[in-house]
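Lab meeting, item 3. Inverse folding demo.
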């Protein structure tokens, strides 16, 4: 272990401040990807960064941020600002937004940022807008993570006229846009961005492997990394939002992609087109994450897939998009940024568990940090609570809630979303010491209940301090009726001794006492 630590430290100290981005690799060229560095706990304060992943004494990998010169534990409690609740209003005051988020108990803002926000035209970078967001977050005491869009959307992302996005016009020939994927619907292939944005539900997506697109994405990510390398506020970046191959049909019908497919067949001696898409996606994201980490080896990089369907193992979605639950690991992501919504969320957790739950969530990358757990009209109170609890009981290192538009203080809290979220954040804060470094399973004590509707999950720290999380997967939180004491719980001890027991409910400690317990049979 000491040798391993020394290797990390040497890499950290030897990294030039103004290192140059490596040469552009050839398609499918074997190259060891770069992930975020993990520093051993005893060396945490020597890290040349304001946030970093640290291997705790119990071997769990967790995030730390520098506060007053020392690295301190940081469990992400984030709210995501969407394009439609902040970005489209030119008068949005982010100091007000972030102050409101902090008042609800959030410690992190996930802010949507588009490629064109920072690279206005080819190789012309301007971080004025992004810097203003970062500065507002810092003033309001929040950390920040970029949700970086690469694609455009038919309904006005990154602007009200997405067809003008310069990145889709890097290879215009014969009246067609060859830098863009060509989707097909009802037998018709759409080969211009103007046609795509006029068709409801179709997203213009880049041909990530197009030479003119590929090297520019790497360059942009490297420049973004270097610019925020020593930021006191930014803790990570989500590279792409619901990216992949078009999910309309077998796609992509662009001849540039067809040429990449032929190249892949020659290099791999394989021919399955769906497999080509999966291997190409993994390789592209390995190169994108590596390019970022060449400029900053510490920020956490994540990804999310459309609606969680690929993680859920939906055969059609996996085949179409080239993504699956395995994409996070195979694509070299530092964090699993899955979105959890009622339609696919439960199946998505099942799919992720098949790939990562055998120790990987806690001990190696990628960590479990969902980017979007829907609230308000996006999830019922029951589903929101379940998805948060599923994250906590697996030892996840935080989560993001989608979105600010459902909980902002200017709106009437008709669905109870604001109260539900702030109460959850406060419950977590009261138990954050165990949640942060805890591992799944009970420690010296464990809780049981005879109630069939009740589920109890445990986290423990070094087999000692234990957090028992009680929830009702099939019942809305407000219907549990715990205030009247109708739930019978039994506390059992693994070791005889005197214990301190605290009960938290509704964001408050409702009972705390010391008790003596005998050894449980």
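The presenter then showed the designed sequence:
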């Amino acid at each position: 272990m000491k040798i391993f630590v020394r290797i990390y430290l040497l890499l950290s100290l030897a990294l030039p401040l103004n290192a140059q981005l490596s040469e552009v690799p050839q398609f499918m060229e074997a190259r060891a990807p770069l992930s975020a560095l993990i520093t051993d706990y005893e060396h945490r304060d020597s890290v040349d960064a304001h946030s970093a992943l640290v291997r705790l004494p119990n071997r769990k990998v967790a995030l730390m941020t520098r506060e007053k010169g020392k690295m301190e534990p940081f469990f992400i409690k984030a709210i995501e600002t969407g394009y439609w609740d902040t970005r489209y209003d030119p008068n949005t005051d982010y100091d007000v937004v972030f102050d409101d988020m902090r008042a609800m108990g959030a410690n992190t803002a996930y802010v949507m940022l588009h490629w064109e926000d920072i690279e206005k035209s080819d190789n012309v970078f301007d971080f004025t807008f992004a810097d203003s967001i970062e500065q507002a977050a810092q003033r309001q005491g929040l950390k920040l993570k970029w949700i970086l869009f690469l694609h455009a959307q038919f309904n006005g992302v990154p602007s009200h006229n997405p067809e003008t996005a310069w990145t889709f016009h890097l290879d215009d020939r014969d009246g067609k846009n060859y830098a863009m994927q060509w989707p097909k619907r009802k037998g018709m292939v759409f080969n211009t961005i103007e046609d795509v944005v006029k068709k409801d539900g179709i997203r213009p997506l880049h041909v990530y492997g197009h030479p003119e697109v590929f090297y520019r994405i790497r360059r942009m990510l490297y420049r973004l990394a270097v610019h925020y390398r020593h930021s006191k506020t930014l803790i990570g970046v989500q590279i792409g939002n619901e990216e992949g191959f078009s999910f309309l049909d077998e796609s992509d019908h662009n001849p540039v992609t067809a040429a990449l497919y032929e190249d892949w067949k020659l290099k791999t001696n394989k021919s399955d087109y769906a497999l080509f898409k999966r291997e190409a996606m993994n390789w592209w994201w390995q190169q994108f994450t590596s390019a970022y980490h060449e400029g900053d080896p510490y920020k956490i990089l994540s990804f999310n897939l459309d609606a969680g369907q690929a993680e859920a193992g939906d055969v059609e979605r996996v085949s179409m998009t080239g993504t699956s639950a395995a994409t996070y690991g195979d694509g070299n992501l530092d964090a699993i940024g899955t979105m959890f919504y009622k339609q696919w969320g439960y199946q998505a957790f099942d799919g992720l568990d098949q790939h990562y739950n055998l120790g990987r969530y806690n001990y190696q990358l990628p960590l479990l940090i969902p980017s979007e757990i829907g609230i308000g009209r996006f999830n019922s109170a029951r589903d929101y609570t379940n998805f948060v609890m599923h994250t906590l009981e697996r030892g996840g290192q935080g989560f993001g809630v989608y979105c600010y538009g459902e909980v902002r203080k200017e709106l009437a809290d008709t669905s109870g979303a604001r109260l539900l979220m702030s109460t959850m954040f406060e419950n977590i804060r009261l138990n954050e010491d165990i949640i942060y470094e805890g591992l799944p399973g009970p420690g010296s004590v464990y809780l049981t209940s005879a109630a069939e509707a009740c589920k109890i999950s445990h986290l423990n720290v070094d087999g000692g301090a234990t957090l028992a999380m009680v929830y009702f997967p099939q019942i809305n939180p407000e219907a549990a009726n715990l205030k009247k004491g109708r739930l019978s719980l039994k506390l059992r001890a693994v070791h005889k001794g005197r214990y301190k027991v605290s009960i938290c409910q509704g964001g408050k400690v409702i009972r705390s006492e010391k008790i003596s317990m005998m050894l449980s049979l």
